[in-house]
Amino acid sequence: IHRPEVVLVTGGAGFIGSNFLLYMVPRYPEVQFINLDSLTYAGNLLNLRDIEDAPNYRFVRGDVADAPLVERLFREHGITTVVHFAAESHVDRSIMTPLSFVLTNTVGTVTLLEAARKAWGDHADPERFRFYHISTDEVFGSLGPEGYFTESTPYNPRSPYAASKAASDHFVRAYWHTYGLPVVISNCSNNYGPYQFPEKLIPLVILNALENRPIPIYGKGENVRDWLYVRDHCTAIERILLSGQTGQTYLVSAGCERKNLELVQQLLDLIDEELGRPVGQSRRLITFVKDRPGHDFRYALDASRLREELGWAPAYTLEEGLRETVRWYLTHRDWLEAVADASYRAYYEKQYALR
Ligand code: NAD
Ligand code: TDX
Protein backbone atom coordinates (compact mmCIF):
# COMPACT_ATOMS: atom_id res chain seq x y z
CA ILE A 1 0.00 0.00 0.00
CA HIS A 2 1.27 3.44 -0.95
CA ARG A 3 -0.03 6.62 0.71
CA PRO A 4 0.64 9.59 -1.57
CA GLU A 5 1.15 12.99 0.05
CA VAL A 6 2.70 15.26 -2.59
CA VAL A 7 2.35 13.95 -6.11
CA LEU A 8 4.40 15.24 -9.02
CA VAL A 9 2.37 14.56 -12.16
CA THR A 10 4.41 15.13 -15.31
CA GLY A 11 2.70 15.82 -18.63
CA GLY A 12 -0.52 16.68 -16.81
CA ALA A 13 -1.62 19.10 -19.53
CA GLY A 14 -1.68 16.37 -22.17
CA PHE A 15 -4.43 13.91 -23.00
CA ILE A 16 -4.15 11.17 -20.36
CA GLY A 17 -2.43 13.36 -17.75
CA SER A 18 -5.23 15.93 -17.78
CA ASN A 19 -7.91 13.24 -17.58
CA PHE A 20 -6.02 11.79 -14.62
CA LEU A 21 -5.77 15.14 -12.80
CA LEU A 22 -9.43 15.97 -13.46
CA TYR A 23 -10.29 12.63 -11.85
CA MET A 24 -7.84 12.64 -8.93
CA VAL A 25 -7.63 16.26 -7.69
CA PRO A 26 -11.27 16.49 -6.47
CA ARG A 27 -11.24 12.87 -5.29
CA TYR A 28 -8.18 13.24 -2.99
CA PRO A 29 -8.45 16.75 -1.47
CA GLU A 30 -5.83 15.92 1.21
CA VAL A 31 -3.21 15.06 -1.43
CA GLN A 32 -1.19 17.82 -3.16
CA PHE A 33 -0.80 17.56 -6.93
CA ILE A 34 1.94 19.41 -8.82
CA ASN A 35 1.67 19.33 -12.59
CA LEU A 36 5.01 19.74 -14.39
CA ASP A 37 4.48 20.22 -18.11
CA SER A 38 6.49 22.10 -20.74
CA LEU A 39 3.34 22.77 -22.83
CA THR A 40 4.46 21.42 -26.18
CA TYR A 41 1.93 21.37 -29.02
CA ALA A 42 0.25 18.48 -27.15
CA GLY A 43 -0.14 20.26 -23.80
CA ASN A 44 -3.04 22.58 -23.18
CA LEU A 45 -4.04 24.34 -19.95
CA LEU A 46 -7.61 24.64 -21.27
CA ASN A 47 -7.94 20.96 -20.37
CA LEU A 48 -7.49 21.76 -16.68
CA ARG A 49 -9.95 24.63 -16.23
CA ASP A 50 -12.15 22.65 -13.85
CA ILE A 51 -9.34 22.20 -11.32
CA GLU A 52 -7.04 25.18 -11.93
CA ASP A 53 -8.18 26.95 -8.75
CA ALA A 54 -8.33 23.86 -6.54
CA PRO A 55 -6.27 24.40 -3.34
CA ASN A 56 -4.51 21.03 -3.76
CA TYR A 57 -3.38 21.67 -7.35
CA ARG A 58 -0.60 23.74 -8.85
CA PHE A 59 0.95 24.05 -12.29
CA VAL A 60 4.65 24.48 -13.05
CA ARG A 61 5.78 25.04 -16.62
CA GLY A 62 9.03 23.22 -17.29
CA ASP A 63 10.89 20.41 -18.99
CA VAL A 64 11.28 17.01 -17.32
CA ALA A 65 14.83 16.86 -18.72
CA ASP A 66 15.79 20.09 -16.87
CA ALA A 67 17.68 18.52 -13.94
CA PRO A 68 18.13 21.67 -11.77
CA LEU A 69 14.42 22.48 -12.06
CA VAL A 70 13.31 18.93 -11.29
CA GLU A 71 15.68 18.66 -8.30
CA ARG A 72 14.42 21.99 -6.96
CA LEU A 73 10.81 20.79 -7.20
CA PHE A 74 11.66 17.68 -5.18
CA ARG A 75 13.46 19.79 -2.53
CA GLU A 76 10.95 22.60 -2.25
CA HIS A 77 7.74 20.60 -2.31
CA GLY A 78 8.71 17.42 -0.47
CA ILE A 79 7.50 15.24 -3.32
CA THR A 80 6.62 11.71 -2.19
CA THR A 81 5.17 10.36 -5.41
CA VAL A 82 5.78 10.70 -9.13
CA VAL A 83 3.25 9.79 -11.80
CA HIS A 84 5.20 10.23 -15.00
CA PHE A 85 3.11 10.80 -18.14
CA ALA A 86 5.22 13.43 -19.94
CA ALA A 87 6.34 12.17 -23.32
CA GLU A 88 6.45 12.79 -26.99
CA SER A 89 3.63 10.38 -27.80
CA HIS A 90 2.91 10.26 -31.52
CA VAL A 91 4.47 7.49 -33.63
CA ASP A 92 4.24 9.38 -36.95
CA ARG A 93 6.05 12.38 -35.46
CA SER A 94 8.75 10.06 -34.10
CA ILE A 95 9.37 8.89 -37.65
CA MET A 96 9.94 12.53 -38.70
CA THR A 97 11.93 13.73 -35.64
CA PRO A 98 13.27 10.86 -33.51
CA LEU A 99 15.75 12.84 -31.42
CA SER A 100 13.12 14.86 -29.56
CA PHE A 101 11.66 11.51 -28.47
CA VAL A 102 14.97 10.40 -26.99
CA LEU A 103 15.39 13.71 -25.17
CA THR A 104 11.96 13.79 -23.55
CA ASN A 105 11.09 10.13 -23.19
CA THR A 106 14.46 8.66 -22.33
CA VAL A 107 16.65 11.49 -20.97
CA GLY A 108 13.60 13.10 -19.30
CA THR A 109 12.73 9.87 -17.50
CA VAL A 110 16.30 9.33 -16.27
CA THR A 111 16.41 12.96 -15.08
CA LEU A 112 13.30 12.34 -12.96
CA LEU A 113 14.66 9.03 -11.66
CA GLU A 114 17.91 10.72 -10.60
CA ALA A 115 16.04 13.50 -8.78
CA ALA A 116 13.84 10.93 -7.03
CA ARG A 117 16.87 8.87 -6.00
CA LYS A 118 18.69 11.92 -4.63
CA ALA A 119 15.62 13.12 -2.74
CA TRP A 120 14.48 9.77 -1.35
CA GLY A 121 17.76 7.94 -0.93
CA ASP A 122 18.50 4.30 -1.65
CA HIS A 123 15.87 1.83 -0.44
CA ALA A 124 13.17 4.44 0.14
CA ASP A 125 10.12 3.18 2.05
CA PRO A 126 7.51 2.13 -0.56
CA GLU A 127 4.66 3.14 1.72
CA ARG A 128 5.88 6.76 1.59
CA PHE A 129 7.55 6.97 -1.81
CA ARG A 130 6.65 5.74 -5.24
CA PHE A 131 7.80 6.39 -8.81
CA TYR A 132 5.04 5.38 -11.21
CA HIS A 133 6.06 5.25 -14.87
CA ILE A 134 3.32 5.30 -17.51
CA SER A 135 4.27 3.29 -20.56
CA THR A 136 2.84 1.65 -23.63
CA ASP A 137 2.19 -1.74 -25.21
CA GLU A 138 4.29 -0.64 -28.21
CA VAL A 139 7.49 -1.60 -26.35
CA PHE A 140 6.64 -5.27 -27.00
CA GLY A 141 6.61 -4.92 -30.78
CA SER A 142 4.06 -6.37 -33.15
CA LEU A 143 1.82 -9.44 -32.80
CA GLY A 144 0.51 -11.70 -35.55
CA PRO A 145 -3.19 -12.55 -35.66
CA GLU A 146 -2.96 -14.75 -32.53
CA GLY A 147 -1.64 -14.34 -28.98
CA TYR A 148 -1.26 -11.62 -26.38
CA PHE A 149 1.50 -9.59 -24.79
CA THR A 150 2.05 -10.45 -21.10
CA GLU A 151 4.19 -8.82 -18.41
CA SER A 152 7.05 -11.15 -19.36
CA THR A 153 6.96 -10.68 -23.15
CA PRO A 154 10.47 -9.67 -24.29
CA TYR A 155 10.83 -6.08 -25.44
CA ASN A 156 10.96 -5.59 -29.21
CA PRO A 157 10.29 -1.90 -30.01
CA ARG A 158 10.05 -1.09 -33.71
CA SER A 159 9.37 2.66 -34.01
CA PRO A 160 11.55 5.49 -32.67
CA TYR A 161 8.71 6.30 -30.24
CA ALA A 162 8.52 2.71 -29.00
CA ALA A 163 12.34 2.50 -28.74
CA SER A 164 12.48 5.67 -26.63
CA LYS A 165 9.72 4.38 -24.32
CA ALA A 166 11.34 0.93 -24.10
CA ALA A 167 14.62 2.59 -23.07
CA SER A 168 12.78 4.57 -20.40
CA ASP A 169 11.14 1.40 -19.03
CA HIS A 170 14.54 -0.29 -18.84
CA PHE A 171 15.94 2.63 -16.83
CA VAL A 172 12.99 2.52 -14.44
CA ARG A 173 13.58 -1.20 -13.88
CA ALA A 174 17.30 -0.59 -13.47
CA TYR A 175 16.61 1.95 -10.69
CA TRP A 176 14.54 -0.67 -8.88
CA HIS A 177 17.19 -3.36 -9.15
CA THR A 178 20.24 -1.16 -8.61
CA TYR A 179 19.09 1.43 -6.11
CA GLY A 180 15.91 -0.09 -4.68
CA LEU A 181 13.90 2.91 -5.83
CA PRO A 182 10.22 1.96 -5.30
CA VAL A 183 8.99 1.95 -8.87
CA VAL A 184 5.97 0.59 -10.65
CA ILE A 185 5.31 0.51 -14.40
CA SER A 186 2.16 0.07 -16.41
CA ASN A 187 2.00 -0.57 -20.14
CA CYS A 188 -1.31 0.38 -21.63
CA SER A 189 -3.09 -0.20 -24.92
CA ASN A 190 -4.43 2.58 -27.19
CA ASN A 191 -6.43 5.18 -25.28
CA TYR A 192 -9.23 7.37 -26.60
CA GLY A 193 -11.57 9.94 -25.06
CA PRO A 194 -11.89 13.66 -24.23
CA TYR A 195 -8.91 16.00 -24.76
CA GLN A 196 -7.01 13.74 -27.17
CA PHE A 197 -5.04 15.71 -29.75
CA PRO A 198 -6.41 15.22 -33.29
CA GLU A 199 -3.20 13.71 -34.66
CA LYS A 200 -4.29 10.36 -33.14
CA LEU A 201 -6.69 8.17 -35.10
CA ILE A 202 -9.99 8.63 -33.24
CA PRO A 203 -10.02 12.44 -32.79
CA LEU A 204 -8.56 12.83 -36.30
CA VAL A 205 -11.51 10.89 -37.72
CA ILE A 206 -13.96 13.03 -35.73
CA LEU A 207 -12.34 16.31 -36.82
CA ASN A 208 -12.14 15.32 -40.49
CA ALA A 209 -15.73 14.01 -40.49
CA LEU A 210 -16.93 17.34 -39.06
CA GLU A 211 -15.01 19.18 -41.78
CA ASN A 212 -16.04 16.72 -44.53
CA ARG A 213 -12.39 16.01 -45.28
CA PRO A 214 -10.86 12.69 -46.40
CA ILE A 215 -10.22 10.19 -43.60
CA PRO A 216 -6.80 8.63 -44.15
CA ILE A 217 -6.54 4.90 -43.46
CA TYR A 218 -3.00 3.56 -43.57
CA GLY A 219 -2.51 0.53 -45.83
CA LYS A 220 -5.63 -1.62 -46.05
CA GLY A 221 -6.94 -0.76 -42.56
CA GLU A 222 -6.29 -4.31 -41.39
CA ASN A 223 -3.96 -3.43 -38.51
CA VAL A 224 -5.43 -4.20 -35.12
CA ARG A 225 -5.40 -2.00 -32.02
CA ASP A 226 -6.72 -2.74 -28.52
CA TRP A 227 -8.83 0.26 -27.40
CA LEU A 228 -9.32 1.61 -23.87
CA TYR A 229 -11.48 4.54 -22.80
CA VAL A 230 -9.21 7.02 -21.01
CA ARG A 231 -11.43 7.15 -17.89
CA ASP A 232 -10.92 3.41 -17.45
CA HIS A 233 -7.18 3.95 -17.79
CA CYS A 234 -7.39 6.55 -14.99
CA THR A 235 -9.09 4.12 -12.58
CA ALA A 236 -6.43 1.52 -13.42
CA ILE A 237 -3.66 4.04 -12.70
CA GLU A 238 -5.29 4.94 -9.38
CA ARG A 239 -5.41 1.26 -8.41
CA ILE A 240 -1.80 0.59 -9.43
CA LEU A 241 -0.56 3.77 -7.77
CA LEU A 242 -2.14 2.91 -4.42
CA SER A 243 -1.93 -0.89 -4.37
CA GLY A 244 0.40 -2.12 -7.12
CA GLN A 245 3.51 -4.05 -6.02
CA THR A 246 6.77 -2.17 -6.34
CA GLY A 247 9.18 -3.50 -8.94
CA GLN A 248 6.20 -4.86 -10.85
CA THR A 249 4.79 -4.25 -14.32
CA TYR A 250 1.04 -4.20 -14.98
CA LEU A 251 -0.55 -4.40 -18.41
CA VAL A 252 -3.72 -2.32 -18.86
CA SER A 253 -6.34 -3.28 -21.43
CA ALA A 254 -10.09 -3.72 -21.72
CA GLY A 255 -9.66 -6.42 -24.37
CA CYS A 256 -11.34 -4.38 -27.13
CA GLU A 257 -9.50 -5.32 -30.31
CA ARG A 258 -10.61 -3.90 -33.63
CA LYS A 259 -9.21 -3.69 -37.14
CA ASN A 260 -8.66 -0.02 -37.94
CA LEU A 261 -11.13 -0.02 -40.83
CA GLU A 262 -13.90 -1.57 -38.73
CA LEU A 263 -13.25 0.86 -35.90
CA VAL A 264 -13.38 3.85 -38.23
CA GLN A 265 -16.60 2.63 -39.84
CA GLN A 266 -18.24 2.18 -36.43
CA LEU A 267 -17.05 5.62 -35.34
CA LEU A 268 -18.29 7.33 -38.52
CA ASP A 269 -21.71 5.72 -38.13
CA LEU A 270 -21.89 7.00 -34.55
CA ILE A 271 -20.93 10.49 -35.71
CA ASP A 272 -23.67 10.37 -38.37
CA GLU A 273 -26.16 9.27 -35.73
CA GLU A 274 -25.18 12.01 -33.29
CA LEU A 275 -25.26 14.67 -36.03
CA GLY A 276 -28.59 13.45 -37.41
CA ARG A 277 -26.99 12.59 -40.76
CA PRO A 278 -28.13 9.45 -42.64
CA VAL A 279 -26.12 6.66 -40.97
CA GLY A 280 -23.41 5.40 -43.31
CA GLN A 281 -23.09 8.67 -45.20
CA SER A 282 -19.69 9.64 -43.77
CA ARG A 283 -18.10 6.32 -44.76
CA ARG A 284 -17.54 7.79 -48.23
CA LEU A 285 -14.81 9.99 -46.68
CA ILE A 286 -12.62 6.93 -46.02
CA THR A 287 -9.47 7.15 -48.15
CA PHE A 288 -6.76 4.50 -48.22
CA VAL A 289 -3.28 6.07 -48.10
CA LYS A 290 0.32 4.90 -48.06
CA ASP A 291 1.11 2.77 -45.03
CA ARG A 292 3.10 3.96 -42.01
CA PRO A 293 6.72 2.73 -42.33
CA GLY A 294 7.29 -0.23 -40.00
CA HIS A 295 3.57 -0.21 -39.08
CA ASP A 296 3.05 -2.68 -36.20
CA PHE A 297 0.37 -5.15 -37.26
CA ARG A 298 -1.42 -5.92 -34.02
CA TYR A 299 -1.34 -5.03 -30.31
CA ALA A 300 -3.29 -7.05 -27.74
CA LEU A 301 -2.65 -7.25 -24.01
CA ASP A 302 -3.41 -9.82 -21.36
CA ALA A 303 -4.43 -7.70 -18.34
CA SER A 304 -5.18 -10.61 -15.97
CA ARG A 305 -2.60 -9.53 -13.38
CA LEU A 306 -4.31 -6.15 -13.01
CA ARG A 307 -7.76 -7.70 -12.94
CA GLU A 308 -6.93 -10.54 -10.55
CA GLU A 309 -4.36 -8.99 -8.22
CA LEU A 310 -5.87 -5.50 -8.01
CA GLY A 311 -9.51 -6.21 -8.87
CA TRP A 312 -9.69 -3.61 -11.65
CA ALA A 313 -12.31 -3.83 -14.38
CA PRO A 314 -13.21 -1.35 -17.10
CA ALA A 315 -16.55 0.44 -16.77
CA TYR A 316 -17.10 1.27 -20.45
CA THR A 317 -17.68 -0.93 -23.47
CA LEU A 318 -16.10 0.27 -26.71
CA GLU A 319 -19.50 1.37 -28.02
CA GLU A 320 -20.19 3.40 -24.84
CA GLY A 321 -16.74 4.93 -24.79
CA LEU A 322 -16.88 5.90 -28.45
CA ARG A 323 -20.31 7.46 -28.03
CA GLU A 324 -19.15 9.48 -25.00
CA THR A 325 -16.11 10.57 -26.99
CA VAL A 326 -18.10 11.66 -30.04
CA ARG A 327 -20.52 13.60 -27.81
CA TRP A 328 -17.63 15.26 -26.00
CA TYR A 329 -16.01 16.45 -29.24
CA LEU A 330 -19.34 17.63 -30.67
CA THR A 331 -19.98 19.71 -27.55
CA HIS A 332 -16.39 21.01 -27.35
CA ARG A 333 -15.94 22.41 -30.83
CA ASP A 334 -14.14 25.42 -29.30
CA TRP A 335 -11.47 23.08 -27.85
CA LEU A 336 -11.05 21.33 -31.18
CA GLU A 337 -10.72 24.65 -33.01
CA ALA A 338 -8.20 25.91 -30.45
CA VAL A 339 -5.91 22.89 -30.84
CA ALA A 340 -6.34 22.43 -34.60
CA ASP A 341 -4.45 25.67 -35.15
CA ALA A 342 -2.03 26.77 -37.88
CA SER A 343 0.82 24.60 -36.59
CA TYR A 344 -1.49 21.57 -36.53
CA ARG A 345 -2.56 22.29 -40.11
CA ALA A 346 1.11 22.59 -41.15
CA TYR A 347 1.91 19.25 -39.48
CA TYR A 348 -1.11 17.68 -41.17
CA GLU A 349 -0.06 18.88 -44.61
CA LYS A 350 3.45 17.57 -44.13
CA GLN A 351 2.26 14.22 -42.81
CA TYR A 352 -0.45 13.49 -45.33
CA ALA A 353 0.88 15.24 -48.48
CA LEU A 354 3.52 12.53 -48.78
CA ARG A 355 0.92 9.81 -48.72
P1 NAD B 1 0.16 13.66 -25.02
O1 NAD B 1 1.08 13.81 -26.19
O2 NAD B 1 -1.29 13.97 -25.19
O3 NAD B 1 0.68 14.54 -23.81
C1 NAD B 1 2.02 14.64 -23.45
C2 NAD B 1 2.18 15.78 -22.46
O4 NAD B 1 3.57 15.83 -22.07
C3 NAD B 1 1.85 17.16 -23.05
O5 NAD B 1 1.10 17.91 -22.13
C4 NAD B 1 3.22 17.79 -23.28
O6 NAD B 1 3.20 19.21 -23.21
C5 NAD B 1 4.03 17.17 -22.16
N1 NAD B 1 5.47 17.13 -22.45
C6 NAD B 1 6.07 16.70 -23.61
N2 NAD B 1 7.41 16.83 -23.50
C7 NAD B 1 7.66 17.31 -22.26
C8 NAD B 1 8.84 17.63 -21.55
N3 NAD B 1 10.05 17.46 -22.11
N4 NAD B 1 8.74 18.10 -20.29
C9 NAD B 1 7.52 18.27 -19.71
N5 NAD B 1 6.36 18.00 -20.34
C10 NAD B 1 6.43 17.51 -21.59
O7 NAD B 1 0.36 12.15 -24.53
P2 NAD B 1 -0.69 11.12 -23.92
O8 NAD B 1 -1.37 10.43 -25.03
O9 NAD B 1 -1.47 11.79 -22.86
O10 NAD B 1 0.32 10.06 -23.26
C11 NAD B 1 0.73 10.20 -21.91
C12 NAD B 1 1.64 9.04 -21.55
O11 NAD B 1 0.93 7.81 -21.73
C13 NAD B 1 2.88 8.93 -22.42
O12 NAD B 1 3.95 8.56 -21.60
C14 NAD B 1 2.54 7.83 -23.41
O13 NAD B 1 3.71 7.17 -23.83
C15 NAD B 1 1.66 6.93 -22.57
N6 NAD B 1 0.68 6.14 -23.30
C16 NAD B 1 -0.21 6.72 -24.16
C17 NAD B 1 -1.17 5.95 -24.81
C18 NAD B 1 -2.17 6.56 -25.75
O14 NAD B 1 -2.91 5.82 -26.39
N7 NAD B 1 -2.28 7.87 -25.86
C19 NAD B 1 -1.20 4.58 -24.59
C20 NAD B 1 -0.26 4.00 -23.72
C21 NAD B 1 0.66 4.79 -23.07
O1 TDX C 1 -4.45 8.94 -39.95
C1 TDX C 1 -4.27 7.82 -39.44
N1 TDX C 1 -4.64 6.70 -40.14
C2 TDX C 1 -4.46 5.43 -39.68
O2 TDX C 1 -4.82 4.45 -40.35
C3 TDX C 1 -3.67 7.64 -38.15
C4 TDX C 1 -3.23 8.82 -37.33
C5 TDX C 1 -3.48 6.35 -37.69
N2 TDX C 1 -3.85 5.27 -38.43
C6 TDX C 1 -3.65 3.91 -37.88
C7 TDX C 1 -2.26 3.62 -37.35
C8 TDX C 1 -2.53 2.68 -36.20
O3 TDX C 1 -2.62 1.34 -36.67
O4 TDX C 1 -4.52 3.80 -36.78
C9 TDX C 1 -3.90 3.09 -35.67
C10 TDX C 1 -3.83 4.03 -34.47
O5 TDX C 1 -2.89 5.05 -34.78
P1 TDX C 1 -2.44 6.17 -33.70
O6 TDX C 1 -3.67 6.84 -33.20
O7 TDX C 1 -1.38 6.98 -34.32
O8 TDX C 1 -1.92 5.26 -32.50
P2 TDX C 1 -0.75 4.16 -32.41
O9 TDX C 1 0.29 4.33 -33.44
O10 TDX C 1 -1.41 2.81 -32.31
O11 TDX C 1 -0.11 4.56 -30.98
C11 TDX C 1 -0.96 4.91 -29.85
O12 TDX C 1 -1.07 3.86 -28.95
C12 TDX C 1 -0.01 3.58 -28.09
C13 TDX C 1 -0.50 6.18 -29.15
O13 TDX C 1 -0.31 7.21 -30.09
C14 TDX C 1 0.75 5.95 -28.36
O14 TDX C 1 1.09 7.11 -27.63
C15 TDX C 1 0.50 4.83 -27.41
O15 TDX C 1 1.68 4.54 -26.72
From TrEMBL:
Pfam families: GDP_Man_Dehyd (PF16363)
GO biological process terms held by the UniProt record: nucleotide-sugar metabolic process
EC number of the protein: 4.2.1.46
GO MF term set: dTDP-glucose 4,6-dehydratase activity
SUPFAM superfamilies linked: NAD(P)-binding Rossmann-fold domains (SSF51735)
Reactions accelerated catalytically: dTDP-alpha-D-glucose = dTDP-4-dehydro-6-deoxy-alpha-D-glucose + H2O
InterPro entries assigned to the protein according to its UniProt record, in alphabetical order: dTDP_Gluc_deHydtase, NAD(P)-bd_dom, NAD(P)-bd_dom_sf
Cofactors, names only: NAD(+)
Top-level taxon in the UniProt lineage: Bacteria
UniProt keywords, alphabetically: Lyase, Membrane, NAD, Transmembrane, Transmembrane helix
NAD(P)-binding domain residues: 8-325
Transmembrane segments: 4-25
Protein family per UniProt: Belongs to the NAD(P)-dependent epimerase/dehydratase family. dTDP-glucose dehydratase subfamily.
Protein name: dTDP-glucose 4,6-dehydratase
Organism listed in the record: Rhodothermus marinus (strain ATCC 43812 / DSM 4252 / R-10)
